[in-house]
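Predicting holo structure, zinc ion bound.
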Amino acid sequence: MVTILQFFFVLVLIIIIILFVFKMGRVRETILLPENYRDLLNDYVEFYRQLDEEGKERFDKRIEQFLSAVQITGVNAVVEDLDRLLIAAGAIIPVYAIPDWQYINLHEVLLYPGAFNEDFDQGGSDRPIGGMVGTGAMQHVMIITKWQLRQGFINSNDARNAAIHEFVHLIDKMDGTMDGVPEIILERKHIARWKHLMDSTIWQMKNGASDIDMYGATNPVEFFAVISEYFFERPGLLKANHPEVFEMLEKIYKRALSSD
Ligand SMILES: [Zn+2]
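Done. Tokens:
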């Protein structure tokens, strides 16, 4: 038989627990985003600058979710607030128009100061210094260098962004194969056309001058990552120079980007 006193005791206990959990949540929130995160994002992230107030709030929530799910660890490098924000921005920019997107294939990002040991490159894919997404024992891990991460955002109109590049590899990898075809977000009916466009553009790059970074001609995997950097940094230029590729990227990323 439960007495009134016992009932009230349990009730007070439950209220205390709820308040405690709520408070923990708030503390966690303030740890995830630094006080000046808005200033930092506006200063460094061109994509963010172009969003309206509602869009910025949506972006803030997404980076907060990302930072609560993915550990960022410095390896001989200090992880500063700016680094965490830029990594999160690089993760969210490509999937911004895909609201329920989660990087379930990523648990940790390792931040290196600069060039990293070649041994880490085995089985991974990437530019010599820029970064890599891990395979095998390094599954679910991404490596990015602090220098390239920051460079990618400081210089916002060179069509290069190391963070976006690596996250696009993860998007590509989500369907089980890294092949330049992100089947998880690209409608099946467009796949053949996208493959053809990648092949023909790579052929053009190899057989004449191109404004696309030649690293993209390595294979379709690198092409998809490199052309996505171009798409998010210089959409207007890509549209003018490669309208068909641009149109397909709009379909892949579900968004119409304003021209730069
Ligand atoms: Zn790559």
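The chain has a mean pLDDT of 88.
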